[in-house]
Task: structure prediction
Amino acid sequence: VNGRNIYGDAGNVQNVYDGLAQYGVISWPGHLSNFELDKCTTNAAMCCWPSDRQADDNNGNCATPYDSNCEDSDPSDNTNLCYVDFEKGVLSTGFAGTGNSVHNGDDGNNQYEAEGPIHCHGFAWANDESDFTSSYKANNLFYVSMYDHMSQRGYVRNIQGAPMCACTEQMPIVSRSDCTQVDVEEEFEIHYDGGQWSGKLAKVYIDFNACEGFDRRGNNDNNDLWAYMNRLYREGKITIDQLMEIGKVLVGDDPDMCSTSVNDFYSTKGMERGHNEDDSVWVKVAGVNSLKMDQPFGKASFDAVFAESPNQIALRRCVYCKNYHREIYYKRLTPITSEFNHYMHLLNGHYENEDYYVYGTDFELYSTYEDAVAGVNEWECENYQYGQFFPGNCRPDGGAEGNVGARMIPHAGRSDVAWYIEKSKDKSTGITDYPITTVGSTKIDGSVRSVDNVLHITASGHGIGTNGNNDAFNFYEELMTGDLTMTVDLTHFDFVGNWAMAGLMIRESLEPGSKSVNLLMSGHYGLVMNGRGETNANYNSWHTNYANGPMFAATMKLVREGNTFKSYYLKEPAKEVGEATLVTAGEGTRCEPGYSFSKEDCLQAGLSVGGTLRSNGELPVGNWGHTPPGCFLYSPDGDYAIHWGTNSNAKNDGNFQPVCKSSTASSSAVGVSGASTTTCRLAIDDYLASFYYDGIDITKSVTGDHDRWDAVNTVTFTEVSNATMAIYAREGNCNWGGTCTCSGFVMECTSTDPASVYHGLSTSTAGWRSIGGNVAITDKAVLSGENAANDFDTSLCTSTSSFSLQGGSAETRKIWAAERYSNFVVFAINPDSQDTGEQWVYMSETTLAMSDNVYAGIAVTSARSDNLAEATFVNYEIEQNIYPSASPSLSLAPTMIVPSRDVGNYGLAGSSSMTGDGRYVLKGTGRDISYRDDGFHAMFENLENGNFSISTYVNSFDFVHGEAKAGVMSRFFLCNKSPNVFMGLTGTNGFQMIWRKCMDCNAEHSEVDSNVRYTQGWVKLEKLDDAYSGYWKHNEEDEWNLVDTVTVESSEPDLYTGLVVSSKKQDQLATAVFSDFSVEEASPSPTSSPVPTMTPPDLYLWPAGSTSECPEGASVPQDNCWEAALLLIENSDYFQSRPGYDSSILSVHDWNYTPCGCFLYDLYQYFHINFDTSTTGCVADNTSYSICTVASTSSRDDD
Result:
């Protein structure tokens, strides 16, 4: 520079601009490799500059003095540089090697590893060499490169690996480019010598202006090269292939398009973003974006794997972070205890825990694995910022740096991040992933995996039975037939919502509104048996246990016998939780580290120190900040209710008494000493003869009204191990007649020892039997009224007497027994005896009609769409009895993950899998399949561009928007603007065929049964040459119905063809289940009811407000309405001057304020094409123009 500027060094540029550039014809520099026309087939060229070398021109940031303020200055930024393929520019750069450079992120804020400000500017010309855009393209090249940008703005230098200016075939891939067009005035001299004519160009004036064009939505868009090419295409001056080629260089302003183009480029090289992970050293547990895990780990599975880490090391990778943050090794120094949520603090949290998460005390950070193992070169993070996501804004040198952390679920912060846990070199970690079925809409992907033979299931979703007729959960299922007995041990449940649920399910279909019967552990309310008796109806809750049974963990059993479903849980032996201490309430008091009770043990520990349950039996669990963490009693309410707090950072405000483990006996514990006593409340129909306990008649100890044994009576006794309790009873009104005796009985017991087998013993406890007779005790359900049904009916005896245990639990059932040739019925139980078998406690039962073929398995939901719950299970078994076979079968056929991908404009990532019975399950988001911008999830295969037929049956479609779509597609490219043809189902608009004939054209469509919801049906797409035909049918045996036949031309050698699903919502997945998917050589298909093609008769646009419906016989059918409207719009000066809301859409509805039939609705600035399906209640609206086949009596001048 040295005091001179580019303007002075290139002063001749101004002379050329003032002369030949504006008033002559400059020759195209085809001798230069940058601009050889035979290699410039797109008809576009552009320049891209990364530097500004001229001050004081209001362009770029170069300033004086040059030596200090213009060494590395930037141009005005107008694009996002995606990547440079060095091979593209090899003709002009002189670089003979191969390779590429990828630039992540945009450059407006000079973010790390982005490209910095870049300025691109180009122009384009027509194929016809006589067209003025082609004749003066060299003038335009001079203006853009030499005059406007070098001379006037001082923009210089090339992007490394690419020429500074060249035909677009050699240029880098960018989001967009500015554009200049030539506007030309020419004068010609024409001569005639009497024999022939001749002419010459006498004068020319060229003006250089910003290009005028049309964007990807068809709107006016100036100063944009792609938009100008789109205009040339619309004017017939270039071909669709040329427009598609420029779209591969100028990919669009959508931030995701750069990333998509980079991924597509990598795929051509056989690569994809991510890491080649060494799974012999690391277990991947979480990841987002390019490092995404389809099935991330939850807390329990994370803890299980971390416990096996030999050096207690975890690795966080970040693809686009700075070098020193790309790999961070976390080393744990102190043990992980049950009261510390390690997973939450490390992967999802941003808070300190003074007991378990302090830098330098509990953990350290390192830059290499070797350093972490050796404990050398530790990061200097004494100022670790706990209010930020890991790594707390810390650098290796101890300095602070923001925007380096990430939360995994739900994702926030840095993109392209993953977590790994060190594997044991001496032990093979037993981890197996299984496919999972998602029912309904879950915002966050869940998982099913076995870790050391423990089944871990994670799930989000808004609930099972808590959201009306729309379930959302993850389901580890298989298709079963016949009677079923399902058992499983739920060993741990990390829930995030009160009505989070985990357990057993039998379900008629995978639709969110399917009939189902479930036995589930809830977050706060214990075991629940619930279900849906009718499709799409609300749930019925047949039984909720609260804390009257197990909380948070249980062994459960669900039985199907025909259409009767029964639920049970296993009464486990009393668990030894250790002695508990009740700590005095005080501000900040809590259990010492390692002395907190688990959630599963809190109830028993709380009861042992005098705690109580809430009146509804609930054990409250919450993420409170003003309570101690773990188990505590709430003192101010006076009832000392037992609670459990999940917030390990909570601070006791002084109103709560922690319940803590005791290392030795403590005087503050309120435990019970001495022999335990049991008190039972009972009622009998009709009277009690004797009450025996351990062989001793204690009938006289029974207190109450002995004349009213059907009222409440009480008995108290000292407990004896291995003792039998026997109650002799008889009903006077039983029809025994000397041949039969029967009675009913209901009882509830409590013990002074909460661990006693008698504590909670009731007539709902399994193990009761009838002794001495030949008819066993009945297993009646709670049908209505208090305690149980009052009717008793067997082949031996019948009874209709009524009694109840007033004040008892509504869930305690009555039991009945009958005996022949006996004076008494005997009810007996020995809770300690092994001869009574497993202590399965009956919960409830229901009867509902459900098909023989059902889906049975384990279901989990978080009842929170933005977070995951995790449940762990062992000993999962399904016994299936299919008649007439008497042999049960045990199976749980896994499904397979199949290759698929997200395409275009999508939000949450989709997935696909194949079930054991051959069904494909596709889940996806996506903007839509329509207009000029597609977004969907696809299971594609490449087919030769020949004749073929693809068809499938849509078994079910769980949509989240009326315009969601599922079906088959044939597509030219994997960008969002690609030409394609789709045939499938929509959410609420029936079958639909959609096609886009050219790159970035507006999609067109034909539909069947608009505004009708079909979630099942057959669809087929048939291709013969360039003609595509779409078909549908409801049943396999039906004939195919033709929707439409369209021509979509392409010279591509092959096509992407397969199954697709789009949710029309970026934050919610739609799920489609397909079967009978086939791809065959095409053959003509018979049709039964083709959609008519319109041959328009005379059409008339009636003035607004002139009619409420067309005269009889003059109406335009719905199938012809859209085409008829377009014909009239083309010939209406009034509507030609008005912008259409979207002329590709026919809105169909049953309105009550418009004309009936086909009409144009003119409102505010836009008009709409509408069809009102009403036949009554039609209104002559003054904004609606009816379309009829006869003229109106009065006409409007504008029409």
Notes: The chain has a mean pLDDT of 82. Residues 137-151 form the longest helix (15 residues). DSSP finds 16 helices and 70 strands in the chain. The longest strand covers residues 178-192.
